[in-house]
Automatic annotation (TrEMBL):
Name of the protein in its database record: RALY RNA binding protein like
SUPFAM superfamilies reported in the protein's UniProt record: RNA-binding domain, RBD (SSF54928)
Pfam families in UniProt: RRM_1
UniProt entry tagged with the keyword Coiled coil: yes
Sequence ranges assigned to domain RRM in this UniProt record: 21-95
Length: 95
């Protein structure tokens, strides 16, 4: 194990403040891309408090909405493992 602190797998809290600081990452090749890869890519935008990876998509939970917005702006349509990320977006309370 590296000296890094592992983030939680929890990204589905119902707290309105945490919903605004969550990022959805779509079109993700999860056969190749793992949680550690997502954390490495998205950690440059701010402190990640949670990251969950599912078949074809992932969620990243940041400490603040500002960090989530920066991640969406910086990573939308980025190519990872030969696929462009789709629908990288901040989650809104209406979803």
């Amino acid at each position: 194990m590296t000296g890094k602190t592992q983030t939680s797998n929890v990204t589905n809290k119902n707290d309105p403040k945490s919903i605004n600081s969550r990022v959805f990452i779509g079109n993700l090749n999860t056969a190749i891309v793992k949680k550690a890869d997502i954390e490495a890519i998205f950690s440059k935008y701010g402190k990640i408090v949670g990251c969950s990876v599912h078949k074809g998509y992932a969620f990243v939970q940041y400490m603040s909405e500002r960090h989530a917005r920066a991640a969406v702006a910086g990573e939308n349509a980025r190519i990872i493992a030969g696929q462009p990320l789709g629908s990288t977006r901040k989650i809104s309370q209406a979803e």
